[in-house]
Specification:
The complex is a heterodimer. By secondary structure, chain A is mostly helical. Helices cover about 75% and strands about 0% of the residues of chain A. Chain A has one domain (about 5-125, about 135-225): MetI-like (MetI-like fold). Chain B has a single domain, classed as MetI-like fold (Orthogonal Bundle), CATH 1.10.3720.10. The chains are: A mainly alpha, B mainly alpha.
Chain lengths: ~240, ~230
């Protein structure tokens, strides 16, 4: 019943899809993390002009589906006359918004950034205040304190929550096929329409995602052993 | 005109989205309770399938699952109707959506409920048994109400993710609010406007849910002492 030839015949298009998924997720996560660090610091500040805009940003992007965000970027922005004028004028920057790859990357990065900001802000808030006071007593300036004490500690303790975000991002990236991109899901949809074999096409795609998820879980376990070793429960010697 | 006359259609779509989300939640709740019970049963023939279920369904994207259920389900339905010589039956995207989202989030709820059951001290169950309660009474009176308190934050998070997941059902042709907004955006050449309306509707649902969950958490934590700093 399950025809393996369909999969072996189309194996290379699945590989291409995997490469596209990896690029989309990898670049979006990296960009999202880089943007999230300063935004998280703003999010925990006491200044309403700093934390309110960031709150609004995370509230909007965590409260709406990523699919809609992607469609807004790819289809929605074309509604505006200035956008069409910019395309007419061949403006190299605005022409990027006609590229599905760029649009998906932008939507994914902005979305994951919003979640990452809240994860990081949560870790920053839960830093033992003794550590901050010690840094103050040492005469560190606020920036040095941030760089040497607050951020290293917060980033480490965010690793477990961030691993979930990475997995959600991998799974969420399946919607890239809604804007004509041929990622893993897109490749499976092509195979389905060519052979009319839904189980073969989509089950194999699901299997690839599953393996990628396991790989991510494994990598994060290594990362936790490397950077969170000091927070692990102490191992006791077996009693004889 | 209210949104070029598309206002009522979008509200109809919002009602479809809400029904889809609530029905999926019911299914996910039931599947999650069953999964957690199986995982905690300690019997290998129950633990093993439940573990496979919660691992598999959390590792595959919801869209891929939905395509398997919708297109694969149609093939299976066709085979059954052919064998029984019935008329052609169309699998509805609504049913496929409820089944997929319900079963996927059942896997997440399995983990939530498992953790929550484990958080109830065993001494309480033993005390219940010592009072002469039956297993069912211990479950209904002692285990379940306390488990729910520990599970509420997890249930809340899962529900918020579930609501946003319903958006992808428009990709298999269900006329939910995204689908209607998409059509309206194409005909009126105002896609941005209509997507933003949908975003606001989602924000309404998520905001009301967060507020309700916060109230529920307070309600179920009555009698729990919080440390004060």
């Amino acid at each position: 019943m399950f025809e393996f030839e369909i999969i072996t015949e189309n194996f290379s298009s699945y590989l291409d899809g995997m490469w596209l998924t990896a690029q989309l997720v990898g670049i979006a996560l990296a960009a999202g993390l880089v943007m999230a660090v300063p935004l998280a610091v703003m999010r925990v500040s006491n200044n309403p002009f700093l934390y309110r805009p960031v709150w609004l940003y995370t509230y909007f992007f965590r409260g709406t589906p990523m699919l809609i965000q992607l469609l807004v970027v790819y289809y929605g922005l074309a509604q505006f006359q200035w956008m069409q004028d910019a395309w007419e004028a061949q403006s190299p920057f605005w022409l990027l918004f006609r590229e599905p790859f760029f649009c998906a990357l932008l939507a994914f990065a902005v979305n994951t950034c919003a979640y990452t900001v809240e994860i990081l802000a949560g870790s920053i808030r839960s830093i033992p205040h003794g550590e901050i006071e010690a840094a103050q007593a040492m005469g560190m300036t606020p920036f040095t304190r941030l760089r040497r004490i607050t951020l290293p500690s917060a980033l480490r303790r965010s690793i477990p929550a961030y691993s979930n975000e990475v997995i959600f991002m991998l799974q969420g990236s399946a919607i890239a096929s809604a804007v004509t991109l041929v990622d893993i899901t897109g490749a499976a949809r092509d195979v389905y329409s060519r052979h009319f074999a839904p189980f073969e096409a989509f089950v194999f795609a699901g299997l690839i995602y599953l393996l990628m998820t396991f790989a991510i879980v494994g990598l994060f376990r290594l990362a936790e052993q490397r950077w969170l070793a000091h927070l692990m429960p102490r191992k006791t010697q077996a009693a004889h | 005109m209210f949104l070029d006359g598309y206002g009522p259609a979008i509200l109809d779509g919002a009602w479809v989205t809400l029904r889809l989300a609530l029905l999926s939640l019911c299914l996910a709740f039931a599947a999650g309770l069953a999964g957690a019970a199986a995982k905690l049963s300690g019997t290998r023939i129950l633990v093993w399938p439940a573990t496979a279920y919660s691992t598999l369904f959390r590792g595959v994207p919801d869209l891929v699952m939905m395509l398997i259920v919708f297109y694969g389900g149609q093939v299976m339905v066709n085979q059954v109707t052919d064998a029984l010589e019935w008329d052609y039956v169309d699998l509805s995207p609504f049913i496929a959506g409820v089944l997929t989202i319900g079963v996927i989030f059942g896997a997440y709820f399995t983990e939530t409920f498992r953790g929550a059951f484990l958080a109830v001290p065993a001494g309480q169950m033993e005390a219940g048994r010592a009072y002469g309660m039956t297993s069912l009474q211990v479950f209904m009176r002692i285990l379940f109400p306390q488990m729910l308190r520990h599970a509420l934050p997890g249930i809340g998070n899962n529900w918020l993710v579930l609501v946003k997941s319903t958006a992808i059902v428009s990709m298999i042709g269900l006329a939910d609010m995204n689908f209607v907004a998409d059509q309206a955006g194409r005909t009126t050449h105002q896609p941005f406007l209509f997507y933003m309306v949908v975003c606001l509707l989602y924000l309404c649902v998520t905001s009301v849910s967060s507020w309700t969950l916060h109230r529920l958490e307070r309600r179920y934590s009555v009698g729990v002492r919080h440390a004060e700093f």
